[in-house]
């Protein structure tokens, strides 16, 4: 009986470790830096919060234009740089990841 319980516990812990390791980093919607046009660095990303899937599509379609509308004012939430949707002004329900080439470009859109 003890051996059966040990096997069960090991299986549960193993599955938990697998589920934790399977969590993927968010994929940026852009391939080039919206400011410099250079290749992106996967470590230099921001999350732009939007209210819905349609607004998320707008961000993906025009990253540079969205950044022009963006108000970087969210200091509380580490996942997003804005408090409200840049298109509708509504609350945030989705996060779109945008990448930059360097910390200098990224720094222009992080809340201070």
Short account of what is shown:
It contains 4 helices and 2 strands. It is elongated.
Please characterize this protein's 3D structure.
This protein has 112 residues and is α+β, with helices and mostly antiparallel strands. It is 37% helix and 15% strand. The protein has one domain. Strands 1-2 form a two-stranded antiparallel ribbon.
Helix content: 25-40%
Distance between the termini: 58 Å
Q: What sort of overall outline do the alpha carbons produce when their principal axes are compared? A: elongated
In terms of per-residue confidence, which ranges show pLDDT below 50 for 5 or more consecutive residues? none
Number of domains as seen in the coordinates: 1
Structural Rg: 19 Å
Q: What is the count of DSSP helices, taking H or I runs of 4+ residues?
A: 4
Strands ordered across the widest β-sheet: 1-2
Based on secondary structure, the structural category is alpha+beta
Strand percentage, roughly? 15-25%
Sheet with most strands: 2 strands, antiparallel
Key structural traits:
112 residues; alpha+beta; 37% helix; elongated
Topology (elements, then pairings):
Layout: H1 2-21, E1 41-50, H2 53-61, H3 63-69, E2 94-100, H4 103-107
Antiparallel strand pairs: 1-2
Helix pairs in contact: 2-3
């Amino acid at each position: 009986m003890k051996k059966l319980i040990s096997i069960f516990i090991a299986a549960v812990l193993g599955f938990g470790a697998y589920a934790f390791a399977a969590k993927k980093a968010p994929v940026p919607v852009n391939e080039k830096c919206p400011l410099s046009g250079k290749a992106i660095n996967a470590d230099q990303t921001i999350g732009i919060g939007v209210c819905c899937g349609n607004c998320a599509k707008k961000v993906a379609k025009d990253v540079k234009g969205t950044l022009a509308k963006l108000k970087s004012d969210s200091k509380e939430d580490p996942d997003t740089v804005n408090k409200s949707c840049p298109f509708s002004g509504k609350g945030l329900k989705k996060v779109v990841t945008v990448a930059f080439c360097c910390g200098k470009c990224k720094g222009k859109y992080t809340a201070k």
